[in-house]
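Worked example

This section walks through a single chain of length 282. The input is the sequence exactly as stored; nothing has been trimmed or padded.
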Amino acid sequence: MLKLTDISKRLGAFHLEQISFELPPGYIMGLIGLNGAGKTTLLHLILGLYQPDGGSLSIEGKTYDTDRKEILETIGTVLAEDLFHSYDTLLHNARQYGKYYKNYDEPLLLQYLSRFALPPDKKYRELSKGEKLKFQFAFALAHHPKLLVLDEPTGNFDPEFRSEFFSILKEFIADGTNSVILATHLTEDLDRIADYIVYLEKGKLLLAEDIETLREKYRLLIGETYKLKLLPRESIIYMEETAYGTRALIRHRSRNVYDRELTVTVPSIEEIMYFMTKGRKA
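Given that input, the structure is written out below as tokens.
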């Protein structure tokens, strides 16, 4: 579905450096990183809004150099920017932009508007932030994309709609031909739904793994400091002392045998991100 090889982009002092990963059809990829990590820059490259300085990017085997129109028709987007006309109704906006997509399906749009409790005759400017993102989502789905690119939408959704949102994403990939890239700072969402994780920090790729491999690779250990310090130094990503004990993220091997007095858990995505960031700053 999506393949990036050594993609680089410089924007002023910021440099996105040699990013490589693949997203097969039928999966959801979570894109994570602190503010300024390069998530939005990477999404803009995937959407063809930026031209890379180096490397290659293809979507379903096509490149922007030769197949730009075909690629754009296969991508549905939900972005932070307001993309629609403020004084037009939702239906008029959809018709205006829908003519650029050969697969635009107005009955499907109306189904989603009804499902999201968005009146078609309501003006775009009258929507709340969350409702604007719901409308973007409805329109994105209504032209039958193959790839959904979603930039931080869930923080503006109420808990009930977040659950529905994730259900729709699962429906979207269910037949094994569509994929999703979801950039979010709410990593607990990705623990539930993501198949792959891409983690950026200051323009560099720290990891790009499928979620099962990620869960096998790392363990979070909690216990007495001296016991954790007995672990091989090369296996410790970062160790910290807290009021509740000492914690360490380590590289796990299936043959590892840990002290019985240590608490050993599979870390969440947020915990992996936290300890990796701390480890790089140490």
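What to look for: The chain has a mean pLDDT of 92.
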